[in-house]
């Protein structure tokens, strides 16, 4: 039942947020987000400035330094440490010939289509993956040779190049030292380039 002169009760509008309140909430959210981002981007910006801890200069046994660290005092409350330049002097270790030989033997077995012989040269933990890996990366009959070697007394990393899948190929083969003193093939990655 409706009464003349009175508004209809069923068509009342729900309460809405006033534009001023919405703008205020939006500004507060943006300010809070900016504060959090700044806090993570510059973690020390909330701390007061004062004497701090200086971090030690990293050292490395095969590297030599050209100078020692120096400190300069800019004000009584701050100290700036200039780090020395570290110039590594490389004494390349000659990789063990036994590790290089295992890689050469592995590639020879692949070239000679001797998959069981190639898998036998793999480390025990890797043998179960070698069958599929050989098929997909360096199929039997591929002619790939060692081009350069790097490593330490514990592993050898050989760069290899040649022909795989009838196309130019290059990649790496890695052999690791076993507990008994011998070497085994850990992994290899060969991709065709042409």
Description:
With 194 residues, this protein is α+β, with helices and mostly antiparallel strands. The chain is built from four helices and eight strands; from the N terminus they run H-E-E-E-E-H-H-H-E-E-E-E. A hairpin with a 2-residue loop joins strand 2 and strand 3. The longest helix has 23 residues. The protein is elongated and about 100 Å long. It starts with 18 loop residues before the first helix and ends with a strand.
Structural class by helix and strand composition: alpha+beta
Major sheet strand order? 5-6-7-8
| Outline | elongated
The N- and C-terminal alpha carbons lie at a distance of 87 Å
Number of strands: 8
Individual helix count: 4
Order of helices and strands: HEEEEHHHEEEE
Radius of gyration: 34 Å
Average the pLDDT over all residues and give the rounded result. Answer: 76
Query: For the report, how would you describe the main beta sheet?
Result: 4 strands, antiparallel
Low-confidence stretches: 61-68
Determine the strand fraction and express it as a percent band: 25-35%
Bin the helical content. 25-40%
Task: Describe the structure concisely for a colleague.
The protein has 194 residues and is α+β, with helices and mostly antiparallel strands.
Topology:
Blueprint: H1 19-41, E1 63-65, E2 70-75, E3 78-82, E4 86-88, H2 97-111, H3 115-120, H4 127-137, E5 143-151, E6 155-164, E7 167-177, E8 183-192
Antiparallel strand pairs: 1-4, 2-3, 5-6, 6-7, 7-8
